[in-house]
Design brief:
The protein is mostly helical and 52 residues long. The chain is 67% helix and 0% strand.
Protein backbone atom coordinates (compact mmCIF):
# COMPACT_ATOMS: atom_id res chain seq x y z
CA UNK A 1 0.00 0.00 0.00
CA UNK A 2 1.42 3.32 -1.07
CA UNK A 3 1.13 6.72 0.50
CA UNK A 4 -1.51 7.73 -2.05
CA UNK A 5 -3.79 4.87 -1.06
CA UNK A 6 -3.44 5.70 2.62
CA UNK A 7 -4.26 9.37 1.95
CA UNK A 8 -7.35 8.42 -0.06
CA UNK A 9 -8.61 6.15 2.72
CA UNK A 10 -8.08 8.87 5.34
CA UNK A 11 -9.88 11.47 3.20
CA UNK A 12 -12.84 9.14 2.60
CA UNK A 13 -13.18 8.62 6.35
CA UNK A 14 -13.02 12.40 6.91
CA UNK A 15 -15.59 12.95 4.15
CA UNK A 16 -18.06 10.57 5.80
CA UNK A 17 -17.43 12.18 9.21
CA UNK A 18 -18.01 15.65 7.81
CA UNK A 19 -21.39 14.93 6.24
CA UNK A 20 -24.17 16.89 7.99
CA UNK A 21 -26.21 13.78 8.85
CA UNK A 22 -24.59 13.17 12.22
CA UNK A 23 -25.70 15.15 15.29
CA UNK A 24 -22.24 16.67 15.88
CA UNK A 25 -22.07 18.15 12.38
CA UNK A 26 -25.61 19.31 11.60
CA UNK A 27 -24.82 22.99 12.16
CA UNK A 28 -21.73 22.87 9.89
CA UNK A 29 -23.69 22.56 6.65
CA UNK A 30 -22.01 21.14 3.55
CA UNK A 31 -18.82 23.20 3.82
CA UNK A 32 -16.48 20.65 5.39
CA UNK A 33 -17.65 17.75 3.24
CA UNK A 34 -17.37 19.89 0.11
CA UNK A 35 -13.81 20.93 0.91
CA UNK A 36 -12.75 17.38 1.78
CA UNK A 37 -14.51 16.08 -1.33
CA UNK A 38 -12.59 18.53 -3.50
CA UNK A 39 -9.30 17.49 -1.92
CA UNK A 40 -10.26 13.83 -2.47
CA UNK A 41 -10.95 14.41 -6.17
CA UNK A 42 -7.63 16.23 -6.63
CA UNK A 43 -5.79 13.45 -4.80
CA UNK A 44 -7.50 10.77 -6.91
CA UNK A 45 -6.46 12.55 -10.10
CA UNK A 46 -2.86 12.82 -8.88
CA UNK A 47 -2.79 9.12 -7.97
CA UNK A 48 -4.22 8.11 -11.34
CA UNK A 49 -1.65 10.27 -13.15
CA UNK A 50 1.14 8.71 -11.09
CA UNK A 51 2.24 11.89 -9.35
CA UNK A 52 1.82 10.41 -5.86
Amino acid sequence: MGIGTILIIILIILLVGGLPVFPHSRSWGYGPSGIIGTILVILLILVLLGRI
